[in-house]
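Write out this protein's structure.
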Amino acid sequence: MIPSTLFALVTALSSVVAVNGAIIQRDGSGSVSFQTPQPTVSSHAMSSAPVTSGSVLTSKFPSSAPMSSAVTSPATTTSPVPTTSPATVKSPTATTTSVVRATTCDGVQQWQSAFGYSAGDKAIFNNQLYVAKQWTWNNAPPTHPDQWTGQGACTPPIVNSANCAGVLAWNKDTAYVTGNQVTFNGHLWIAVQWTQSNSPGDASGIWRDEGACTVS
């Protein structure tokens, strides 16, 4: 039992004293109670305090552990298979061969300029035989296919010389009728109409060339 003198001393000093870290508090009825003080935790202490169960600690530093132990294999690249184009087969080119018709030109004379030809008359031009389709005057066969028909190349040799034996030379003062013959410049000529003073081979077209004379 506590002596009354000691109790009175405690009351005088303080109504509250700390004993071994505990607070003794006396109420008005004379009862004494003990309270354990709660420690004050500073913000610095909180940051260094160990993590209790149930707390979540978020690290501000990257983890040195690998994120995943799975190793990603490199993608397999499939090389394209070369495609072989089918060989192009060229069709043979059709060649057009010009067929040169050979024909006899014996007795046919060279084409005359400034001379009239009737349908069916023949003439040689550039060693080709032509037949007049219609009456034509001074129109060369190659440039007037509408008036001439090509018969093909002349077969050599061409025999179209004339026998001039007994034929007189042309005379400008003599009147000639259709069918009369004369020699002029080594050729035999025949009149196709009446004429006087028109020389064979001039632009009048009155004389037709019958070929070079073999005998004069």
